[in-house]
Amino acid sequence: MLIFLIRRTLVLVITLLIVSVLAFLIPYAGEGDPARKILRARVNDPALDQSQVDALTKELGLDRPIYEQYFEWLGNTMTGDFGFSYTSRVPVSEMVAPALSVSISLALAALLLALVFALPLGIVAATRRGGKIDNVITFLSQSAVSAPEYWVGPVLVLIFAKHLGWLPSGGWSGLAYIVMPALALSLRPMGYFTQVTRAAMTEVLAAPYITAARSRGLSFPKTLARHGMRNSMLPVMTLFSFWFAGLLGGSVVIEVIFNIPGMGRLLYTSVLNNDVPVIQGGMMWILTLAVVINTITDLLYGVLNPAIRVTHG
Amino acid sequence: MANSTLTTPPTRKREPWHLSAPPSHRPNIFLATVRNLLHRHWTFEVGAALLLFVLLVLVLTPWIAPHDPANQDLANRLAGPSADHWLGTDHLGRDVLSRLMWGGRFSVTIAGITLVICVVSGTILGALAGRRGGWIDEVVMRTVDVLVCFPDVVIALFLIALFGTGYGTLIAALSIAGWTPFARLMRGLALEINAKEYIEAAEILGSPKWFILFRHVIPNALPPVAAMSFLRFGHKLITVGALSYLSLGVQPPDSDWGAMLLDAQPYMERAPWVGILPGAAIFITALSVTMIGQGLDVQKKRRTTARTTGPSGAPAEEPASRTAIEEGEAL
Asked: Cross-referenced InterPro entries, in alphabetical order (chain A) (predicted)?
């Protein structure tokens, strides 16, 4: 366990170093003087005064060797200081924190919604394996998995916001605003959760301890609750946290469609505006979180399932 | 090629080894696959029919598309379905059906190219990790651990910030993390295959390592890898569409299904079909490959319990039994 932790921490550090080098290089990529690019993004004036460019170069220390600049940047980054946004002049950390909390609520809402539907469907499909109900559920889950959220979202808006007028079509200022984006976002994970629940449950139901429990006179629902659920939830849990990490920055399209001030939209607009400090800060945060969440999941998996602990080294 | 005589059935009349023609006795993986497709699962049948239809239309597009996809007819904007425009026209009076056909060629081709890159690199790296172990295994699998949790869209945004938009960036963005599920699956399969007798036999016969890898390990892992390829294809298609929808993927004047959806957004209320049809095209194509992939997976599971002999009655090299869904293709 300790070895596993040390190893994964090492991997995390190496990853972050690589990511940080790439993030640092963003303003240097492509042609042109980075100072000129930065200045252009700031003042939005195509005809730049060379003296201004030189002043900024001096101010930002862009004339120093690149590794020196990198280590200084990395030092600031470690303390959470990514500088100021070019466009809004607000510190990056003050932009990332609220965006992240919005994305976390959206991801949790979508994934919980997905679980609420997927668990019963997956269990029913597994207990009626090969039957009509199973086939219907299988087909539904395949459809859910194949439905692009940027298609479902606008269609939902058309129906519930434009025609019925029940829900707001975008924005983020209350519970009603979370319903449609969460629904659109939940479809694909819902399909995957259903399939994984079904597969895990099928396997568990074939296990000898289920037969043993049944032969002791335990009713089928009780067997399911006591033995089936506990043993089949591990893969679902893994998938849940995987999706959670993925949705933190990956729900870009839905956040753009519904105009939600989350992490995905922040990253997207910063890329469009070439707002380098925000891109750097956002990327570092999102990718760090993704790796950390995944490591914790793998760790928990080992704790909850002693059978695989050995192979995990 | 000496090892292929091993697979000669014991009941066969023995010929001098140098006269036997090895290729004909070798269980042919391709034939076996075709034969096995004859015992299909229903989702496979439906999915295959859908996919064949879509591919046929896309291949024949230059000949069957009713209009020039770029041909504007401003007097006839956002018109509903008619005899001339079966699926209506968009906000510039362009024929939606023709645009769907031409756009689909972009979407499907880009998803296909990235898929091939991911399958080939993932399979080879995973097989190497599983066969060789040691530091190769460590490096490959730790890389997988990290990359697997990076969302494709975030990688794409990162690359676009670095290199700008373009087809190269698009394909790279989808491939950087896209190979990892294949590597994970393949490594597990390779570990399983390592323990088989035919590997031991090949090793005793002194077959070179690369030969064992490409002749025994990878072919016997192909069915689950094929199933996963189909499942991943749907995922890639959706991601390509998402990036185009964000106007970061396919760039004008080219247009794909995602870009068509983006164009249609302002007119959703006035002309819903313009905003629904391209999404439906992505949905149907993704659904078809998902159904094929899962059909293959289910059938594969059934077969591993039933099958003891290969085609031509020879004891088969028993393929690995893991399936893509169990392996967490859901990722």
From this structure: BPD_transp_1_N, MetI-like, MetI-like_sf
